[in-house]
Design brief:
Blueprint (H helix, E strand, L loop, with lengths): L30 H22 L9 H18 L7 E6 L1 H8 L9 E4 L6 H8 L8 E6 L5 H11 L12 E4 L6 H11 L3 E6 L9 E6 L19 E6 L6 E5 L3 E6 L6 E9 L3 E9 L11 E10 L4 E7 L23 E4 L5 E5 H4 L4 E12 L4 E10 L2
Helix pairs in contact: 1-2, 2-3, 5-6
Length: 392
Amino acid sequence: MSPPDLPGRDPPDFDPPGFDPPGFDPPAFDLPGFLRQLPDRLPRAGDAARTAFPPGDGVATPDRLLARAAFVLAARHALRRHGDGPAGLLVATGAEREMLLAGLPPGRVPDMVPLDLAAGVLPALDRLTPPAAHGRWATACVSPAAGPALQIALLRRLAGPVGAGMAEGGTLLLCPPAGAAGLLLAAADCFGTGAALHPFAMPAGIGCDLVLARTCPAAPLPGAPGGLDAAGEVGCLTAVHDPDLDLAEAHPDGRLFAATPDETVGHAVAGLAFRWRGRLAAMLHPGPSTRPRRALRGAMGLVLDFGREGGGWHRLFLAVSEPPPAGRLGHLPGWGAGAPPDAVLALGGERALLLDLPALAPAGWSGEVILSVRVEDLPRAALGASVSLVAG
């Protein structure tokens, strides 16, 4: 995350024409067209950003400057789109706000949630408007200074309130680090935000990509998979390597999500424990990743732990990414067998699974099962799963 602006610091001088030259303003309804043109404008915008942010202010590295320039250009255009309609929301640093206000029409001042709040961005957002309040904002823009985990949280939090009640829906503009847009796509698919996400890759060296999320208030949000609690009480289990970087969520309605949003290696696992002697339907929501050469146990997939009558566990690993060599798969998660798997199956490109638990279970199975998603030693990777019971 970029360092926050210093409290009480005067915003830097900023020359709006440096960012918005004549002729570089597609029609207001064509925000995707604007984003596609944006890379051609960024070199000059970077020069303006270097003037706006003098050396020594903590954000003047080339990639951070260009990321801020891309955000300011895109957010300024997005916040102008809705004319006299609902207000916009800006989650950004104080200096970015001043840069944006310099190019917005009078009266189009967005609501602001500063990124440097010690108490946290999400609590501040809840104080600004209750979570259930819809339709206050037509557009919300989130700075690249927000880390991937916070951008995922804001996507889920804002997909309902932004644009609700408007016939055309609303717009969320997010700026994940370069290569991390897949994390947002996986989270949106897994949690059913009701928003359609469109990534726009920026050129190498800019430091961020742009993701445009269109909310669809006319369509109901996808419901939870449902039915998992038919087997009785469901236990939710989570574990991460670094609580400040990695994400793991387990919900008794059947949703699981694990992500390692940082560039460094780490792990995240999330599981559901229940009893069921039938079949399971699972829809997988993976985010892309690349295996670093130094990662000897990198893995992404589903873990099935089957309880045995009289004690003990049998573990099966269903690999979404190519698994490491035999003997290097590690022991995660720590629950259930807490040991390397007894068998490994490659799922290939399968995303919709129908798992016949009795056929996969060992002899002497007790009916107890723990289904987990696991992401380990794969930077900027995510795996979600929506799970439901299949009767008969």
